[in-house]
Amino acid sequence: MPTGPSASPAEVAREPLAAPRVTFLGAPFDLLPKDAVLDRLKDCSSAEPFAYVATPNVDHVVRLSRQPDLLSVYEAAWMSWCDSHQIERLGKLVGLDLPHLNGTDVMERLFAEVLAPGDTLAVVGADAALGEALRQRFPQYRWHFHAPPMGLAHNPQAWRAALDFVAAHPARFVFLAVGSPQSERLALAIVEEGRSCGTAFCIGAALEFLTGRKQRAPVLMQTLGLEWLHRLLQEPRRLWRRYAGSLLPLMLLFLREVRENGLRRAQKVIPERQARG
């Protein structure tokens, strides 16, 4: 793949990830373990054509079942991680071994093991307080921040401003923190424009956990897969409806999965993905 000075992001495409991908509960998941993911991220640079990472969890797969047009957004992701202990455990019940990659865990390791002093990082979605907290916590990196208004997806001018920001601030890694599915839709739009470089993460509260603005669950709760319960107890008014409304749809999705594929399905690997131009 040409990446010399004469090549622009619009003229080249990120090579597909050489890793198997399966579809489970209607969402794509890569079968790349965490250490292999970190090794691949170490190779990422600000010169590579833009690509993004999606992190499907229970909320995502339920939304996908209701909005099937979103599937192409996840399928176009360079990586798609299983960010849910519940989905991981349901996968085991039908013979799938889905690596569980908690987004915050991976971000912690990214900052500890992958980033180098002087790396350029861009954030779409950080307010002034979070931006300042990141600068203070990680002063060794060059930061760029853009805080779009609420309702980004329905504001053409704000949407264009976000696209222009990413294109104008080439970064090794870009953090898209404008909520799901806005982050994923924005990431795909950036890819399709072909003006930008770097690797983006469609993340939720990971940066707030990294700066200490939000507290993670105790290690035992993380190990038991109960981090969702800790978050619910921390923010009950914001999260109870989301979690309560996802339980029954998730079970229905699992029953449909069992009906269609049986209890011991083979890992049906999606054919090799093509690079997006």
From TrEMBL:
InterPro entries: WecG_TagA_CpsF. This is Exopolysaccharide biosynthesis WecB/TagA/CpsF family protein. The lineage of its organism: Bacteria, Pseudomonadati, Pseudomonadota, Alphaproteobacteria, Hyphomicrobiales. One of its GO terms (molecular function) is hexosyltransferase activity. Coiled coil: none annotated. Keywords: Glycosyltransferase, Transferase. The keyword Protease does not apply.
